[in-house]
Design brief:
The chain has helices spanning 9-16, 25-47, 57-92, 99-140, 146-171, 177-207. The chain is mainly α. The chain has one domain (24-207): Formiminotetrahydrofolate cyclodeaminase monomer, up-and-down helical bundle (Four Helix Bundle (Hemerythrin (Met), subunit A)), CATH 1.20.120.680. The radius of gyration is 20 Å and the shape is elongated. The termini are far apart.
Length: 210
C-alpha cells in the first residue's frame, strides 16, 4: 500500500475524493490535526528570538519539541488508519452463505472492527494533546500570530470530532457490546472535555482580536 502521508496535497485530496476505500475520514482527520498542530508550532517559531518574549524562550523550545512529536504522530496515523481499514473493507465482502461462512465472517469482522477503532481513538488522544499545547502557545506565543493559534485549535477540534465519528461507526457494528460501550465512553469523555477546552482557547483568541 502506498504511504498516503507522503502524497502531495493535490494527490491526497484527489484519492480522498475517489471511490477508493482509503484514505477516509480517519486519515483526513489525522491530517487536519497535523496541520492544526503545525499552526500552533508556527507561532512558537515566530516567538523564538524575540526580545519581548525572552522570559519564555525555554518554554517555547520545549513546546515546539512536543509539537513536532504530535505532528509526526498524526502524520503517521494517516497511514495507520488506511492500514487498519483495508482489512475491514475486505471483511465486509466475505461470503456468508453457509453457517460456517457466517460464523467466520462474524469472527473476522469483530477483529477488524476493533482494529479499525484503535487508530481513530489514537487520533483523538493525540488531538487532545495538541489542544492542550495550543493553550500554551496562546498564553506564551507572540501576539502578532495569535490568530494562527485560533485557526490551529479549530483544526484540532475538527479533527477530534471527525475521528470520533470513525470510532462510533465501528463500535455501532460490534457484537461485543461491553467492549463497544467502553470505547464509546472514552470517546465521549474526550469530546466533552476537549471540545470545551478548544472552544475556550478559540474564544480567548477571538476576544484578543475583536
Amino acid at each position: 500500500m502506498q504511504d498516503y502521508s507522503q502524497n502531495t496535497c493535490r494527490e491526497f485530496v484527489t484519492v480522498l475524493a475517489s471511490k477508493s476505500p482509503v484514505p477516509g475520514g480517519g486519515g483526513a482527520s489525522a491530517l487536519v490535526g497535523a496541520v492544526g498542530m503545525a499552526l500552533g508550532n508556527m507561532v512558537g517559531s515566530l516567538t523564538i528570538g524575540k526580545k519581548k518574549y525572552a522570559d519564555v524562550q525555554d518554554d517555547i523550545v520545549a513546546m515546539q519539541i512536543e509539537a513536532n512529536k504530535i505532528q509526526d504522530r498524526l502524520l503517521a496515523l494517516v497511514q495507520e488508519d488506511a492500514l487498519v481499514f483495508e482489512p475491514l473493507s475486505k471483511a465486509y465482502g466475505m461470503p456468508r452463505e453457509t453457517e460456517e461462512e457466517k460464523a467466520e465472517k462474524a469472527r473476522v469482522m469483530e477483529l477488524a472492527l476493533k482494529a479499525a477503532c484503535s487508530v481513530p481513538l489514537e487520533i483523538m488522544k493525540t488531538c487532545c494533546l495538541a489542544i492542550d499545547l495550543h493553550a500554551d502557545f496562546a498564553a506564551k506565543g507572540t501576539a502578532i500570530a495569535i490568530s494562527d493559534v485560533g485557526v490551529g485549535v479549530a483544526f484540532c477540534r475538527a479533527a477530534l470530532h471527525g475521528a470520533s465519528l470513525n470510532v462510533f461507526i465501528n463500535t455501532s457494528a460490534m457484537t461485543e457490546r461491553l467492549y463497544a460501550d467502553e470505547v464509546n465512553a472514552q470517546t465521549h469523555e474526550m469530546l466533552e472535555i476537549y471540545t470545551q477546552k478548544a472552544d475556550d482557547i478559540y474564544a480567548n483568541v477571538l476576544a484578543r482580536l475583536v
